[in-house]
């Protein structure tokens, strides 16, 4: 009797194996594998996971080097945390790219890059996440580009704990967040270029124990007095750009306007302030060691009640640009920079 049973078991295993789809360098979800996490778990190094439109109620953790996760349509490939899962996508492997999809309703971050090198986040919409929309923590040599963040109770875009960073944040839109962009202990070849930080409670903050070699160039920082956004813990409101504990940074070719508090609040005369247009703010420039009155900020609203984002552009079929920052090409932007991607207009 033992021989037939063993033979049957072999047939059963063989049958299961033959039923598995052939997984090559491109894996399609859900056509081949039912969830994004399952696809990530079976993917080999360097594979591309292409996700078809749908709402994916899951949290994805990437542990395999060199993967690309790409949505077929940015606005309709949605990783939804349902306000009960922590992160939409957590990248815990080097050289990973996340592209052309939406992450929403997570209790921490939409996309978290954690202690990695060589990351890229392109054409991602991050909305209604309790901490950050897209956050690179203790990570280096990366790009966050052409993305959108709203409804973040900490910041839409965040880079923290890197020196040198070798990180480029470019061409993004942040609105209806507590803070549009937040750099925390992020120094050394750190580039924030050509972004729109408008319609938040605070536009941009950059702070470190000793911060240097940060370039804030070509950004629109305006109208940061949005009441229908999550409240900031310290109550800050109406502030355009604040730079703390910094030396030898470049603040150049930014348009900082219509912020009812302070437009630009640097902390050091050693920073290079060049060719900025700073007009129409409650106070255009104030060095941050000057005593200030605490702003009377509106209460704010829960992160999951912030209005849904407008439709965002799809990632083009052409190859993405080189990772190099190319600082020289960024001039003072116009007040309608990325108006077509924004719900809060200047």
TrEMBL record:
<feature type="domain" description="Right handed beta helix">
    <location>
        <begin position="109"/>
        <end position="274"/>
    </location>
</feature>
<feature type="region of interest" description="Disordered">
    <location>
        <begin position="292"/>
        <end position="326"/>
    </location>
</feature>
<keyword id="KW-0732">Signal</keyword>
<dbReference type="Pfam" id="PF13229">
    <property type="entry name" value="Beta_helix"/>
</dbReference>
<dbReference type="InterPro" id="IPR051550">
    <property type="entry name" value="SCF-Subunits/Alg-Epimerases"/>
</dbReference>
<feature type="signal peptide">
    <location>
        <begin position="1"/>
        <end position="19"/>
    </location>
</feature>
<dbReference type="InterPro" id="IPR012334">
    <property type="entry name" value="Pectin_lyas_fold"/>
</dbReference>
<feature type="compositionally biased region" description="Pro residues">
    <location>
        <begin position="310"/>
        <end position="319"/>
    </location>
</feature>
<dbReference type="InterPro" id="IPR039448">
    <property type="entry name" value="Beta_helix"/>
</dbReference>
<dbReference type="InterPro" id="IPR006626">
    <property type="entry name" value="PbH1"/>
</dbReference>
<protein>
    <submittedName>
        <fullName>Right-handed parallel beta-helix repeat-containing protein</fullName>
    </submittedName>
</protein>
<keyword id="KW-0677">Repeat</keyword>
<dbReference type="InterPro" id="IPR011050">
    <property type="entry name" value="Pectin_lyase_fold/virulence"/>
</dbReference>
């Amino acid at each position: 009797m033992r021989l037939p049973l063993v033979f049957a078991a072999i047939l059963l295993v063989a049958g299961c194996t033959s039923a598995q789809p052939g997984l090559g360098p491109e894996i399609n979800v859900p056509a081949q594998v039912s969830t994004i996490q399952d696809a990530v778990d079976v993917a080999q190094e360097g594979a591309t996971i292409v996700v078809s439109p749908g709402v994916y109620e899951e949290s994805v953790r990437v542990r395999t080097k060199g993967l690309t996760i790409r949505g077929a349509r940015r606005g309709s490939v949605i990783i939804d945390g349902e306000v009960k899962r922590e992160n939409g996508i957590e990248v815990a492997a080097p050289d990973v790219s996340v592209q052309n999809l939406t992450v929403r309703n997570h209790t921490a971050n939409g996309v978290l890059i954690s202690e990695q090198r060589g990351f890229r986040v392109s054409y991602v919409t991050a909305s209604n996440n309790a901490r950050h929309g897209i956050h690179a923590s203790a990570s280096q040599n990366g790009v966050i580009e052409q993305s959108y963040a709203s409804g973040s109770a900490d910041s839409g875009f965040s880079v923290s704990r890197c020196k040198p960073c070798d990180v480029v944040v470019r061409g993004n839109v942040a609105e209806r967040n507590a803070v549009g962009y937040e750099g925390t202990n992020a120094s050394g070849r750190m580039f924030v270029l050509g972004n729109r930080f408008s319609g938040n409670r605070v536009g941009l903050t950059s702070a470190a124990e000793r911060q240097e070699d940060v370039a804030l160039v070509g950004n629109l920082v305006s109208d940061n007095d949005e009441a229908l956004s999550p409240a900031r813990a310290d109550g800050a409101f109406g502030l355009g750009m604040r730079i703390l504990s910094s030396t030898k940074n470049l603040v150049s070719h930014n348009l900082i306007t219509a912020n009812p508090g302070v437009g630009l609040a640097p902390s050091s005369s050693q920073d290079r302030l060049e060719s900025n247009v700073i007009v129409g703010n409650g106070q255009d420039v104030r060095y941050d060691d000057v005593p200030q009155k605490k702003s009377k900020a509106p209460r704010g609203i829960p992160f999951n009640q912030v209005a849904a984002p407008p439709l965002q552009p799809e990632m083009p079929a052409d190859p993405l640009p080189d990772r190099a920052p190319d600082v020289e090409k960024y001039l003072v932007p116009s007040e309608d920079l990325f108006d077509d991607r924004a719900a809060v207009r200047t």
